[in-house]
From TrEMBL:
Heme binds at Y357. This is Catalase. One of its GO terms (cellular component) is cytoplasm. Belongs to the catalase family. Residues 523-535 have a biased composition (Basic and acidic residues). Decomposes hydrogen peroxide into water and oxygen; serves to protect cells from the toxic effects of hydrogen peroxide. Its cofactor is heme. It comes from Brevibacillus borstelensis AK1. GO terms for biological process: hydrogen peroxide catabolic process; response to hydrogen peroxide. Residues 19-35 have a biased composition (Polar residues). The active site is at H68, N146. The lineage of its organism: Bacteria, Bacillati, Bacillota, Bacilli, Bacillales. It comes from the Bacteria. PANTHER family: CATALASE, CATALASE-2. InterPro entries: Catalase, Catalase_AS, Catalase_clade1/3, Catalase_core, Catalase_haem_BS, Catalase_immune_responsive, Catalase_sf.
Length: 535
């Protein structure tokens, strides 16, 4: 195999297209037995075929993602409309993939759950990741988001704390709802997300029938270097949107804890290709004092009546991965992966994620993770990056010159024709919250917008989660939920009063969030277990 990664087709005597070899290319003549001294052993140290096989097996797993560990994915394409709403898209962005109606860009999408482990049930209450890699002519663009359009926190400083609270207790290794609400009850900005998460929106029926959102605020930049703020939204087309109640999800989990992965795979195999329309909301790039929230706050929605959803294209997923590990597990995304015409806003959470995501991939997959086929751009690449674990090939024309500038054949900078976007920034360097937090208004609005069955499920799930928490945590949550909406707080308080008198002392601790009597299930397993004699 040369630098271009092309295998020749030579074979030795007796070898065919389906013959087994090891990674050195040696034909394997016995894949059933190690070399031993006599039939019963012991084995000999020079068992090279066995040693290569078992030592690679010992290393089959790479470090699990801290977040978004459980996932699946598919290939497809994005087709641009050439407009944003009814306007030419070039008015707002010069990004090439959007300019021409009908232009198709290859994509790979990874869907995931956020806080749970790599083999966790896909029925658990959790946000869902919705990450799209666009293989554009200008290089890759990663649009990394979730199914829910808001988030728990607005400052990246709190991200490790948030995830630690939702992850299993470091002593018991069990997710503990009291730990979660200990954090949430001290984080008022999370009320909007909690209202979504504990409603049926916290358990999408599958990956095909859920929305997606970039969550954070980005910018679009046109040829003149002028910028606007944008939010991205994926809207399911013919497949629609479906969510599950807690009880419905638990019944499905008893039958199949891979149901969402199976659903996506089988739909694509049947030719029922899921489609989403990409819409954007656009806002001028300033502080917008007329709003009662900061437009850069990722815990808030931009009101659709003021900032309508404008279609810019659609995405179709039409091909399943050929290998899960190579294409889904090693797929690596980053919020900082933008192409010309796209830019960052000052969103604090976005700026923290932009460092963290790509840093995670270098640790998890390796320094040269962008040379893997699933991550590599589908265009020319030429860098002066050198070495690192698992370097696959040198991606420059002159292998001797790995620096710039050079007069003897090194790589050169590309001339930029369009104007840079040059936002003006001034102010003291401080550690402060944004001015317009308004933590409760949109959560209350969302509560009132829910249908009755959604509100009922939301209240039941919050009561089931909070009933295992100590009273001071319950009281803080009720106080904040009441600030969102008096009926919201009242119903949770009354639910806790009724549940407490009925089940006090029988609940245990831990268990997936929103589940009913997770602790009682531990005792039920012991009680219902069938006696057996040792063998």
């Amino acid at each position: 195999m040369g630098a271009g990664g092309v295998y020749d087709k030579r074979m030795t005597a007796g070898e065919g297209e389906d013959s087994l070899t090891n990674r050195q290319g040696h034909p394997i003549t016995d894949n059933q037995n190690m070399r031993t001294v006599g039939r019963r052993g012991p084995t000999t140290l020079e068992n090279y075929d066995f040693l290569e096989k078992i030592t690679h097996f010992d290393r089959e797993r790479i470090p699990e993602r801290v977040v978004h560990a459980r996932g699946t994915g598919a290939h497809g394409y994005f087709e641009a409309y050439g407009k944003v709403g009814d306007e030419p898209i070039a008015k707002y962005t010069r990004a090439k993939l959007f300019q021409e109606a009908g232009k198709r860009t290859p994509v790979f999408v990874r869907f995931s759950t956020v806080t749970h482990g790599i083999h966790s049930p896909e029925t658990l209450r959790d946000p869902r990741g919705f990450a799209v890699k666009f293989y554009t002519e200008d290089g890759n663009w990663d649009l990394v988001g979730n199914n829910l359009k808001v988030f728990f926190i607005r400052d990246a400083m709190k991200f490790p704390d948030l995830i630690h609270a939702f992850k299993p207790d470091p002593v018991t290794n069990i997710q503990d709802q009291e730990r979660i609400f200990d954090f949430i009850s001290n984080t008022p900005e999370a009320m909007h997300m909690i209202t979504f998460l504990f409603s049926p929106w916290g358990i999408p029926a599958n990956y095909r029938q859920m929305q997606g959102s970039g969550v954070n605020t980005y910018k679009w930049v046109n040829k003149e270097g002028e910028a606007v703020l944008v939010k991205y939204h994926w809207q399911p087309l013919s497949q629609g949107i479906k969510n599950l109640t807690q009880k419905e999800a638990q019944k499905i989990q008893a039958q199949n804890f891979n149901h969402a992965t199976q659903d996506l795979y089988e739909a694509i195999e049947r030719g029922e290709y899921p489609e989403w329309e990409l819409c954007v909301q656009i806002m001028s790039d300033d502080e917008h004092p007329e709003l009662d929230f900061d437009p850069l706050d990722p815990t808030k929605l931009w009101p659709e009546e003021q900032f309508p959803f404008l279609p810019v294209g659609k995405m179709v997923l039409n091909k399943n991965p050929e290998n899960y590990f190579a294409e889904v597990e090693q797929a690596s995304f980053g919020t900082g992966v933008l192409v010309d015409g796209l830019d960052f806003s000052d969103d604090k959470l976005l700026q923290g994620r932009t460092f963290s995501y790509s840093d995670t991939q270098r640790y998890r997959v390796g320094a040269n993770y962008l040379q893997l086929p699933i991550n590599a751009p589908k265009k020319r690449v030429a860098t002066n990056q050198e070495g690192g674990q698992m370097l696959y090939h040198v991606d420059r024309t002159n292998p001797h010159i790995n620096y710039e500038p050079s007069t003897i054949g090194g790589l050169r900078e590309v001339v930029q024709e369009e104007k840079d976007h040059e936002p003006y920034v001034a102010g003291n360097v401080v550690r402060q919250k944004i001015d317009r937090t308004n933590d409760f208004k949109q959560a209350g609005e969302r509560y009132r917008m829910f249908e009755d069955w959604e509100r009922d499920d939301l209240i039941e799930n919050l009561v089931n989660a909070l009933r295992v928490c100590r009273k001071e945590i319950q009281d803080k949550m009720i106080e904040m939920l009441t600030k969102c909406d008096p009926d919201y707080g009242r119903r949770v308080r009354e639910g806790l009063e009724q549940a407490g008198s009925k089940d006090s002392g029988k609940l245990g601790t831990g268990g997936p969030i929103g589940t009913e009597n997770a602790g009682a299930a531990v005792k039920e397993a012991e009680r219902k277990g069938h006696q057996a004699d040792p063998y």
